[in-house]
Amino acid sequence: MALIDFELDKLRSYAPELPEESDFDSFWTDTLTDARTFDLAAEFTKIDNKLKVIDTYDVTFNGFGGTPVKAWLHVPAGTAGPLPTVVQYHGYSGGRGFPHATTLFAQAGYAHVVMDTRGQGWSAGGHSSTVDASADAGINHIPGFMTSGLQDPKAYYYRRVYVDAVRLLDAVVDHPLVDRTKIIVTGGSQGGGITLAVAGLAPSAGLDLVGAAPDVPFLCNFPRALEISDRNPYAEITAYLASWRDQVDVAYRTLSYFDGVNLGKRAQAPALFSVALMDPICPPSTVFSAYNHYAGSEKSINVYSHNEHEGGGPYQLDAQLDWFAERFAG
Amino acid sequence: MALIDFELDKLRSYAPELPEESDFDSFWTDTLTDARTFDLAAEFTKIDNKLKVIDTYDVTFNGFGGTPVKAWLHVPAGTAGPLPTVVQYHGYSGGRGFPHATTLFAQAGYAHVVMDTRGQGWSAGGHSSTVDASADAGINHIPGFMTSGLQDPKAYYYRRVYVDAVRLLDAVVDHPLVDRTKIIVTGGSQGGGITLAVAGLAPSAGLDLVGAAPDVPFLCNFPRALEISDRNPYAEITAYLASWRDQVDVAYRTLSYFDGVNLGKRAQAPALFSVALMDPICPPSTVFSAYNHYAGSEKSINVYSHNEHEGGGPYQLDAQLDWFAERFAG
Amino acid sequence: MALIDFELDKLRSYAPELPEESDFDSFWTDTLTDARTFDLAAEFTKIDNKLKVIDTYDVTFNGFGGTPVKAWLHVPAGTAGPLPTVVQYHGYSGGRGFPHATTLFAQAGYAHVVMDTRGQGWSAGGHSSTVDASADAGINHIPGFMTSGLQDPKAYYYRRVYVDAVRLLDAVVDHPLVDRTKIIVTGGSQGGGITLAVAGLAPSAGLDLVGAAPDVPFLCNFPRALEISDRNPYAEITAYLASWRDQVDVAYRTLSYFDGVNLGKRAQAPALFSVALMDPICPPSTVFSAYNHYAGSEKSINVYSHNEHEGGGPYQLDAQLDWFAERFAG
Amino acid sequence: MALIDFELDKLRSYAPELPEESDFDSFWTDTLTDARTFDLAAEFTKIDNKLKVIDTYDVTFNGFGGTPVKAWLHVPAGTAGPLPTVVQYHGYSGGRGFPHATTLFAQAGYAHVVMDTRGQGWSAGGHSSTVDASADAGINHIPGFMTSGLQDPKAYYYRRVYVDAVRLLDAVVDHPLVDRTKIIVTGGSQGGGITLAVAGLAPSAGLDLVGAAPDVPFLCNFPRALEISDRNPYAEITAYLASWRDQVDVAYRTLSYFDGVNLGKRAQAPALFSVALMDPICPPSTVFSAYNHYAGSEKSINVYSHNEHEGGGPYQLDAQLDWFAERFAG
Amino acid sequence: MALIDFELDKLRSYAPELPEESDFDSFWTDTLTDARTFDLAAEFTKIDNKLKVIDTYDVTFNGFGGTPVKAWLHVPAGTAGPLPTVVQYHGYSGGRGFPHATTLFAQAGYAHVVMDTRGQGWSAGGHSSTVDASADAGINHIPGFMTSGLQDPKAYYYRRVYVDAVRLLDAVVDHPLVDRTKIIVTGGSQGGGITLAVAGLAPSAGLDLVGAAPDVPFLCNFPRALEISDRNPYAEITAYLASWRDQVDVAYRTLSYFDGVNLGKRAQAPALFSVALMDPICPPSTVFSAYNHYAGSEKSINVYSHNEHEGGGPYQLDAQLDWFAERFAG
Amino acid sequence: MALIDFELDKLRSYAPELPEESDFDSFWTDTLTDARTFDLAAEFTKIDNKLKVIDTYDVTFNGFGGTPVKAWLHVPAGTAGPLPTVVQYHGYSGGRGFPHATTLFAQAGYAHVVMDTRGQGWSAGGHSSTVDASADAGINHIPGFMTSGLQDPKAYYYRRVYVDAVRLLDAVVDHPLVDRTKIIVTGGSQGGGITLAVAGLAPSAGLDLVGAAPDVPFLCNFPRALEISDRNPYAEITAYLASWRDQVDVAYRTLSYFDGVNLGKRAQAPALFSVALMDPICPPSTVFSAYNHYAGSEKSINVYSHNEHEGGGPYQLDAQLDWFAERFAG
């Protein structure tokens, strides 16, 4: 792979203003208010995860529209809480999968919560089974989730996902194993986009975060993304607009409500980003658009100069282990 | 492209028996009975199609689950019916599109009905707007429609589509421009698969067809198709089973209800098939599986020896014009 | 696909001056004068097109060098002319094909003339059979028509094609079904390039056009095209120059006589262009080079922002139906 | 992906006899005898792995030719041994990587040993640093390790790797955290090939194994592999033979000493294999060649019907957790 | 690359009978008789080839239809003839190129004649300039030479090429540097096909050859070739037949006159073939079809087991140097 | 291919300053001093090359670390020296191959020396057998030679290769067939990079060159190369840095000692470069970086505007024949 975007110098200061509808904040306030009218009905059931040193709870709670959403809660075996807690969202196609699939932050001594993404999970298999139970799921779209409900912000797929992500926090903060004053949200790619959304919505939602760690985040600066990336998932939207040529303005208006750039402007939590300069899927200019606008109190970004979308991989996990420890100690 | 399947000699006699559940017929009888409890509420509204020699009606009727489904009805301008009628279903990704997009059989002097495919239409754009309004649309699946609801025949996407296709016939047979004794169903690829389904369901549904013309039909002999084709849309199912490895039997059981091989065994209408020997998307052994089992009174198949999925293209349309004229004259 | 060319703002004003030989005009005047020494010998034979609402005439006339060239003339069945007339040229690889293949503008009530492209037709099959009967056809070239005779403007393939296109107008203007005061030329890709050529040659050829509608036109700004497009057909020329490295200047000199930019500077007819911003085959800077230099009395361009070479597809046809009606009404 | 190899029925009984040199056993006996003349000099240094529930030891021992080879030893934090032990070898390109990268079997309560592969590690990064310190490393070869030293079994790269793998067992069986009577070897792809080699060499090396779990193993039935796979790493050998065309017999002779089919014939440990029917990298006929010849006391194979080289992924890990528990309990 | 055709055992005896028209021999006799009515007018002009040890003559002679065809004649500098002579034909896209491009057999001490291929030369550049000056060159075809004139054996491109190849022999046998009793014809790929044609036509043309050395020959067993190869140049014919679907029988009939299988049945010269078992362009079954039917007095074939279309490359040249020396000494 | 780099105007003046360590010169002086402590032990053995007009000597000499390195020495048969001499280095993957493979400059009347590249030769086969006999060869690296020893300039692969290249000159200047006052070094791609290295090291090594002819040279301006080229061999380094993310600075430091830009700054010989503007493997900005900094007394560059990495091919050879003659005559 070669550089496919601006050089690093330009990226450092690249912070285009994106369109934002005047009802942006009320759209999200109303959305969360509505979502919270549904009883969370959170359940935590300890299961046999086949592991000796980790305890795992099967979590179910009512997400957007009251849909049951699944998650895992992993903790060091036999721990009494409350523990500092890492909430993780998955990349596009992923799901919570098997209980032994993703336990790193529990191994590090924290409560580790892993959300299932509604309708997705096809690259994880296993225990992923959160249905996107919404009448809007069947609206005409290109194969893939990026264009599901694109005609209307209220019908857009990520409205349901972002709400699930916030409601998961609502669900876990009250659990005795979780220390509600020490919560970090994180995720890579789509999970990074959701992380930005949660960080941006947290202040108005009354949720305190001690950190947000979006890794090569997706869902940022859509107009630029569609210009420069010819790879899925962004290209699903391009394909949609290549067909329904009269829907370009409608689509970009919808996307503006979900753009990590606009959401991150409302964030307050310290953040550790990562970006890869040869990433054709989440090109660096889209990530820096979000990073440069991110409004959290402290922020830093790890730049991986020769990587594609795998980004920092284990190097970034290693950096996160350090940063999380520092944030939780803080 | 080279040959990617059996040689023609072997194809001529290739007719594997596929598994069929014992409730196959009752499944479909019940499905249609349920579907017919919804009032058709068919509406035909003449629109300005910008054409002088063709009149076009915008059709809406209640399909599966009472969902409004769109179609076009094209006829020679100023004709008084009833006319021999060609009902056409579209290939995967297609939709009814613009009113001036597909009018060939109306140009030939017939009533030409074009069904919109629910949820699809992304390669046609324009006037395609039939929503797959079903709670099942949001069940976990791989991007694409092939795996939507694959867990259960009752939830499977094509149950809704096949019912729409039958209900469209219910809707048009009563229209004064349509001669209900002279109806041919046709379509290419997915449209060919739907054609086979309608031909197979027609006897028990009380519908008479004077012909069925499936062109390089899709949705036939799924087990063979997944073994030999690595191309979408069949490969969407492969990708699903590559992830949810424990769902293989469940998936093939579901697919057996929708297989053009099993449905075609119940058909009675004369048929004109086509097949392309170098077709990597609907490989010839899957098409011949359906053809060799097809139970209609007369049948023939046009073999295109050096073509891929484009099949006979205008040559097959030319052959259909002749065959339709002959069938309607008969 | 992503943007592969300039951003729209820059395109709007991109109008580079291309080299033009001093004998450009005399080259074309002489070419047409020579061509018109051959008797047109136009014949129009009504055939059975298998359609009820369209009448089709098989057209033969003597094109460049007296070669017999084929075309279709479609009109609404039973019409007495003269009718406003649309003359259509095909994209690279296309030909007039089957008589029922392309009848849209006849459906709209016009005379619709479809020219066969000499030597081509391989994607249309059917009734395409216009031979490029010229001694120059066998000059050394890369496979494909783009480099046939590139050594000399007099031997270049498109000299023969452009002359055919003009002579077709000569042939049809005298037909009783054609209203010679109401002629629009159109075509997509190569057909768009031929459209520009005809529009540019029409004034000196004594032909009046009420409109020209080049759709994602090819054959424009060759130097820029070869720099930015790595796709056939432009890349055929690149491949030629990659081999015969000493022929670069010779080739660009030849191409300058056939460039839609230079030809369009001589046009007078109003024009409706289209362009797709992600088109890797006819990149937008090449199209805007032609559009910005186009000298017709009125002009507009439909910009498809997320499309590749399919451009506006049915949306552009829809726009053409409106624009043609307006032009013919004017 | 489609099936690219025999159907499952044929695979079940596919067990071709491969050539085996008469000195096969003495080659390996001599090799191990020589290797054991080097002092193991095994060192185990506890490091900070940033994890709370896992303790990790940085392992160094002298492998083939006395080269220092690295490994990790992970155990549940604070455990007193001896523990049942899983020794894992990595796939081609992998290495031991970061200490927190691969700890699953330690999470399950076992000692988990992870060997670094000499010269490799480029997909893992991090702490991989085992040099292939051999004069033979610089012999002419195709880029990649498959052809390094292919001219002579004594110089072949995998001779060094297989010896490292055996010497690692020599190193760990004496460690107090390891129960030398309860050792399972495992690995995927290249790691599966090494697993077969260790299982085959163990009896003559005086090592007892309670199980071997080769996952989609590589390095099996080279002649068939090169006929059917056009993908690296097997294709590295094809590329070598495409160049040095006179070395075909020499190369196959060398490979016969390292073939998992021949080595597995000497194994005694019970085994759990896995195979994927659409695997283009380790095609199923090569895996079944090894499986059907495997001489261990009990054996079973998990067949993933719609997968490529990812095989069972987390499903197979899940099956291994069960099978390991059972074997260790036995 | 993997095996893409039969295994070697089957290839050894693969000799399908191909259709042959009853006028095959008279077609070629008449063709050559006609061709010989044109005065050869062979000219040999010594040029400055920039080489000290090789003398080069620029050759021009009248080929098919009296078209001037170019060639090089290379000999060791200062030699007095007559010399044993190697006549070489080029692969598809090649041409005689620069005078210093291909001199190997002159370096070996022979007269080395290199024919330019009419219309081709685009991969050689330089001094390639033999025009395919035929009215038939402009007949409708797919880009490329394979389908030029495919409608009729008399119009087919290779009729002109094969005649050129024979006439080149007519031209050189009378040159004082050439020993007419010691001539070998050779070439790779297309050049191998032409070699087979010349070897097959030589007896009836009254030409004696002491050897023919077709290297991975093209133009053999067209029906099989189109079934198994999806690569150009064979695939040019597939593309043609995919378009003009009604021309399949016509095309195969034409090709039967030019098939190396049928022509080789008439050969008498000893032959050295080569074949590559992983060749996707000239698949081994097509080469063995020709080899097994080849009627020359002695024949052998070098099999390259792991090669694609590059075949034996320098290894085969090395073998040819030995075989030519032996044949010439004989 | 399209332009993938700057336009020619910008390239003409593109001369970025690259980092250079302060010990650059001493590193090389020390390296050569060390290398020269090994006895050259050059042997020249005349062999049967199967050619009449060329004599070939099999050359062996002790290169870096005393490793035996192979070469060919070709001269016109029977010549008495001393002759002007061309020393040629091969492209990546190449080797000296068969003795009859590369003799052009001997045909032109010169002594023609062809060096084998240690460890490589896999695209040449035949007589290539120079082993990279170094303990450093087995250091962890990505498959391929570009990253072998990248951790340390002293261990880097090209240190050994560049020394071999200089020592070859040491070996041949004393041979009676070689005129030590008339030596030109040349090579394409990697061979061009080695040419630049030898030209740059020659002054301090006490070697006089009358010319250097790097053809589309590789190994120039590594930082730019990795930004713009996604093709091997440069991309081998990118892949290495994508894995070992913490080694970026170390790697670029190492590479700076081997960069043709820095080495060329020390050259004195006149030079003839070539460059191809569409070259994705050795992009033109990397070549112009070297050209614009090249310090030789005279220099010129042949620009091939429409070529990829094949560059000028035979055209450049033709130009070299002229330029060599001129230089040798000078």
TrEMBL record, chains A, B, C, D, E, F:
Signal peptide: none
EC numbers on record: 3.1.1.41
Pfam families, alphabetized: AXE1
Domain Acetyl xylan esterase: 1-325
InterPro entries: AB_hydrolase_fold, AXE1_dom, CE7
Keyword terms: Hydrolase
One term of GO molecular function: cephalosporin-C deacetylase activity
Name this protein carries in UniProt: Cephalosporin-C deacetylase
Organism (species): Microlunatus panaciterrae
